[in-house]
Amino acid sequence: MEQVAIITTETRPSPWGVNKPVNQCSLADVMSEQLARELQLEEESHCAPQEALSDEGSFLTGDDIATSSDEVLAQMLQMQFDKEYDAQLLREERKFNGDSKVSISFENYRKVQPYEESDSSGDEVDWQDTRHDPYKAVKPTPTPKKGFIGKGKDITTKHDEVVCGRKNTARMENFAPEFQVGDGIGMDLKLSNQVFNALKQHSISEQRRSARLHDKKEVSTAEKAVDPKTRLLLYKMVNAGTLDTINGCVSTGKESVVFHASGGRLEDQEVPAECALKVFKTTLNEFKNRDKYIKDDYRFKDRFSKLNPRKIIRMWAEKEKHNLKRMQKAGIPCPEVVLLKKHVLVMSFIGKDQVPAPTLKEAKLGLEDSIQAYHEVLSMMKQLYDECNLVHADLSEYNMLWHDGKVWLIDVSQSVEPTHPHGLEFLYRDCRNVSQFFQKAGVTETPNERELFNIVSGLNITSDNQADFLAEIEALEKLNESHVQNHGKKISAFHKDDEGPPLMYDE
Ligand code: ATP
Ligand code: MN
């Protein structure tokens, strides 16, 4: 009885810093089993270590860390030093690369390899797949579970730095299979507890992130045709509800991959039930084929010189969007622009039930339809030139679709204004393709390519053979160019009146 009173009035010292006075209470209370249990629980919750002790896969405690605190401190200082070194390296890298289109990475010289620092923001996420890591097969010599080796003097405990380090390294095998543990597993590598814990934490967050991404991956199997960054862009469109599903690949061309998608909702705008997703390819090779179109296009000229290839690819998509909008305005049958995100253009799908409309090449029209198609194409070419101030620059039976009993124009990312330094040459080539196609189809009223060129452009070039005709075209283009150089401004249009001067100038 007396003893009980002494204990309960005493203020117990607490190893956790806060001293709470314990209230006096009656013997009945003290003998109560319920109170005993409560006190027991309270005690346990206060005294329990921060983390359960090193079972497979669990975290290590502060106790373990304390045994090698000097070493850890040294490692932390070293880490700090290395990070500062890397920061300096990054500054040097930026300075070295400046605004140059081609940049050099100093990443291999970094002291700290960037797991955590890897840019995981929004669209920059990349995937890792280490399932077939050959090093996974190599196992280290197992350490006895209780940490004892040999007899007598040779007793080692879990606090032994070397044993502990090896064990930590071995335990990394239990990390998620996607987690890149490197080739250290085959070597006698010793990991400090702190490093182990940091890696463990990272492995868990990686697993969570990977699970999130896999959920979204259900979208379709077709996205394998695009790189991870593009895939993420597509997922985002689906997540935002703009698109319902991405259904499959319609075409994989040289310069783009086109998908079919079911439309969703975009704020107040109706998204067509069937959409085409045009993904511009982002590799250097493709970009090289096209730069002749864009680098002389004054609309993009200022920006071109300052951009890296990735941004230039985006400009292709942007160009297609602008050009489609101009055509839309003039009432030319063409895909309707829904949305542009980086190098991905969403537009209405020309076709039905996920089947794209056939190209004029594939449609194999009868004579009557061919005649109708010819007249449509002719008037579209004129409208494009006059009302949209554009030359298609890749017009042929492959870029015209036959849908709903009429011709639709597609693929206008490379289209330029007629006053582009090679605009008239591109127009001539278009006219040659169109003329040859309809002549072969038996449409007798089809003019030859030179006549067609004059009809569309309103110019009156009289040469009766291709070589001279082209020479005249090039002379006109040069005249335009020299005007730009001498007067610092371009001509607004090539004149369309037979009687008037060949060129019209901006005031
Ligand atoms: P290519 O190098 O084959 O010409 P490209 O990269 O220039 O391809 P496009 O010509 O625009 O790309 O599209 C390729 C194909 O994708 C078209 O032939 C057509 O079948 C399909 N396609 C593109 N846009 C649409 C659309 N809006 N609706 C339906 N199908 C489309
Ligand atoms: Mn095409």
UniProtKB/TrEMBL annotation:
Residues 116-127 have a biased composition (Acidic residues). It catalyses: L-seryl-[protein] + ATP = O-phospho-L-seryl-[protein] + ADP + H(+); L-threonyl-[protein] + ATP = O-phospho-L-threonyl-[protein] + ADP + H(+). Residues 114-152 are annotated as: Disordered. InterPro entries: Kinase-like_dom_sf (IPR011009), RIO-type_Ser/Thr_kinase (IPR051272), RIO_dom (IPR018934), RIO_kinase (IPR000687), RIO_kinase_CS (IPR018935), Ser/Thr_kinase_Rio3 (IPR017406). The keyword Metal-binding applies. It is an enzyme of class 2 (transferase). Coiled coil: none annotated. Its cofactor is Mg(2+). GO terms for molecular function: ATP binding; metal ion binding; protein serine/threonine kinase activity. One of its GO terms (cellular component) is cytoplasm. The keyword Metal-binding applies. Its EC number is 2.7.11.1. Keywords: Antiviral defense, ATP-binding, Cytoplasm, Immunity, Innate immunity, Kinase, Magnesium, Metal-binding, Nucleotide-binding, Phosphoprotein, Ribosome biogenesis, Serine/threonine-protein kinase, Transferase. SMART domains: RIO. Residues 215-458 form the RIO kinase domain. GO terms for biological process: defense response to virus; innate immune response; ribosome biogenesis. It is found in: Cytoplasm. Gene3D superfamilies: Phosphorylase Kinase, domain 1 (3.30.200.20), Transferase(Phosphotransferase) domain 1 (1.10.510.10). Belongs to the protein kinase superfamily. RIO-type Ser/Thr kinase family. This is Serine/threonine-protein kinase RIO3. It comes from Leptobrachium leishanense. The lineage of its organism: Eukaryota, Metazoa, Chordata, Craniata, Vertebrata. The gene is RIOK3.
